[in-house]
Write a structure and sequence with these properties.
This protein is 29% helix and 27% strand. It has 255 residues and is of the alpha/beta class. It has a single domain (3-106, 142-243), classed as Vaccinia Virus protein VP39 (Rossmann fold).
Length: 255
């Protein structure tokens, strides 16, 4: 939830500083066979929905992985959406929408967290976040536009079966998935799953995995998303799940 976002923001800041003095830096890391870069190739992903885009760190992450297809980033909080727009500017295949994805088309109040907004959610917290990272406590509430996943699939991906979802919705992931009737077009997803409850009525990892297996997805990779740096207890993971019967050989990624 927080560690990856802060790391990515720090890298982007370093890139901007070096760019100002005429230098360019790119970050590379070795990827194991199950890493997301490999999975996007294997499953021929041609479009990514970046749900809970914040200031655009995940969209840039996909570009750094080498993905050259269409990205649609959704961010409801106005302050972060403005940063997202700037991050996507100049990239004609990176579209942005100032909205949340939820279980109905409406307007709704979202709890805006501090600390770069990494814990903003429609759900109320239960104290775990504040106890482990006080800077992520709720600092504001904002009324935002909400659309269902089905609605944006019909608008941005009306045909095809190689859509990939990145969902970072702080306890709202199951409701988002339940709002779509066209999940057969979604070949895979990266979903943030909670090991420890942070929000009221938040489904935990075991429930979410069972639900997603029931939808036809299989676990193909796991990354740590948020943990206690002192004790190393893991609070959230990013799970990569795909329709494994659709594995292929080509994709929109380039070397």
């Amino acid at each position: 939830m927080v560690t990856a976002a802060i790391r990515t923001k720090a890298k982007r800041t370093l890139q901007q500083v070096l760019h100002a003095v005429g230098l360019e830096v790119k970050f590379y890391a070795p990827y194991p066979a199950h890493a997301l870069s490999t999975l996007l190739v294997l499953y021929q992903v041609d479009t990514i929905f970046d749900i809970g885009a914040n200031a655009g760190m995940s969209g840039q992450y996909f570009r750094n992985l080498g993905f050259r297809g269409k990205i649609v980033s959704f961010e409801p909080v106005a302050a972060y959406y403005r940063q997202l727009e700037q991050a996507a500017a100049g990239d004609p295949l990176w579209l942005t929408e100032n909205m949340a994805i939820g279980d109905q088309n409406c307007e709704q109040e979202i709890n805006v967290s501090g600390g770069c907004g990494g814990a903003s959610s429609f759900l109320n917290t239960v104290g775990h976040i504040e106890a482990n990272n006080p800077e992520l406590a709720v600092i504001d509430r904002e009324r935002v536009k909400v659309e269902t996943l089905e609605s944006v699939i019909q608008r941005h991906y009306p045909i095809g079966e190689r859509l990939f979802l990145k969902i970072d919705a702080q306890g709202y992931e199951k409701r988002i998935l339940q709002s779509a009737t066209s999940l057969d077009r979604v070949v895979g997803m990266r979903v943030e799953l909670s090991v420890v409850q942070s929000y009221e009525n938040e489904p935990l990892m075991s429930e979410m995995l069972s639900h997603m297996y029931g939808l036809g997805y299989r676990l193909c990779g796991v990354e740590e998303a948020w943990s206690n740096q002192r004790s190393q207890e893991v609070f959230q993971i990013d799970a990569m799940l795909f329709r494994t019967e659709k594995a292929g050989r080509t994709s929109a990624l380039t070397s």
